Amino acid sequence: MKNGTDSFVSSFHWPFAGSFGFNTDILATNPINLSVVLGVLIFFGKGVLSDLLDNRKLRILTTIRNSEELQEGAIERLEKARARLRKVEMEADQFRVNGYSEIEREKWNLINSTSKTLEQLENYKNETIHFEQQRAINQVRQRVFQQALQGALGTLNSCLNKELHLRTISANIRMFGALKEITD
């Protein structure tokens, strides 16, 4: 075998022209078979492979478009959710501010109401103390008056005799009679 083509030309492996047979030389038949199979596959399979690749390309493009649409929808929903969140946060801040101002207003109302109530209680206390003082003063006056009257009666009874007593009564009757005439 002087060159690589001698093995293919060898008469041992090639049957005569009129007969049909199998070539059992693996090195000689595999490249021919592979080239024939590849040629047939390329010739007949080119359309099928092209269709498969086109279908796969269309599915991938459709999936990408769907994903982009879903992404756009998700972005829109996210923006809407963020807007709602900002709105809710603003409302929460407003409620918080209103709540604090309402609490302050109620606190001052309670303080004012309590101070008015304390002032009224202080006034009632002072009025009660004044009333009790006046009552005590009146009781002391009555006792002093009663004691003075008893002392005066005791002094009068001890100093007056019957004649002086009758003259005093007569003078008082005349005085009342004179007053009666003046008023009539």
From TrEMBL:
The keyword Transport applies. Its main location: membrane. The chain crosses the membrane at residues 32-49. One of its GO terms (molecular function) is proton-transporting ATP synthase activity, rotational mechanism. It comes from the Eukaryota. It holds the Pfam family ATP-synt_B. Keywords: ATP synthesis, CF(0), Chloroplast, Coiled coil, Hydrogen ion transport, Ion transport, Membrane, Plastid, Thylakoid, Transmembrane, Transmembrane helix, Transport. InterPro entries: ATP_synth_b/b'su_bac/chlpt. It is a single-pass membrane protein. One of its GO terms (cellular component) is proton-transporting ATP synthase complex. F(1)F(0) ATP synthase produces ATP from ADP in the presence of a proton or sodium gradient. F-type ATPases consist of two structural domains, F(1) containing the extramembraneous catalytic core and F(0) containing the membrane proton channel, linked together by a central stalk and a peripheral stalk. During catalysis, ATP synthesis in the catalytic domain of F(1) is coupled via a rotary mechanism of the central stalk subunits to proton translocation. F-type ATPases have 2 components, F(1) - the catalytic core - and F(0) - the membrane proton channel. F(1) has five subunits: alpha(3), beta(3), gamma(1), delta(1), epsilon(1). F(0) has four main subunits: a(1), b(1), b'(1) and c(10-14). The alpha and beta chains form an alternating ring which encloses part of the gamma chain. F(1) is attached to F(0) by a central stalk formed by the gamma and epsilon chains, while a peripheral stalk is formed by the delta, b and b' chains. In plastids the F-type ATPase is also known as CF(1)CF(0). This is ATP synthase subunit b, chloroplastic. It comes from Anacardium occidentale. The gene is atpF.
